[in-house]
Write a structure and sequence with these properties.
Helices cover about 25% and strands about 40% of the residues. The chain is flat. It starts with a strand and ends with a helix.
């Protein structure tokens, strides 16, 4: 079931010219009109920057991440608890496994 709605304009680009560093940027785009969905939290502000860098020994990846998501209102406590206990740790585990494949 959909519980939130996010309008995102994503932009991916290699921002640093060195071969062992990459950066991806995503942010909300409120330029399009999207119909409201009843009982769904609309995220009006979203920003994410993630940078990947090969570590000094060359056998791993360092990840630097900034994330901001503003739902513009109150979130149910069950959702906040789920995000803290399950959602964020699960995302980090998945990201770690993905980076290990490219080490």
């Amino acid at each position: 079931k959909q519980w939130y709605q996010r309008r995102v304009r994503g932009r991916s680009s290699r921002l640093i010219e060195e071969p062992d560093r990459w950066c991806s940027i995503g942010r909300s785009d409120n330029s399009e009109s999207v119909d409201l969905v009843k009982s769904v939290v609309r995220v009006e502000q979203y920003e994410q920057t993630i940078a990947f860098q090969r570590n000094e020994s060359g056998n791993g990846t360092k990840v630097f991440m900034y994330y901001f998501d503003n739902p513009g209102g109150s979130l149910p406590s069950w959702l906040v608890n789920w995000a803290a206990k399950t959602g964020v740790p699960q995302f980090m585990t998945t990201l770690k496994k993905a980076c290990e494949k490219y080490a």
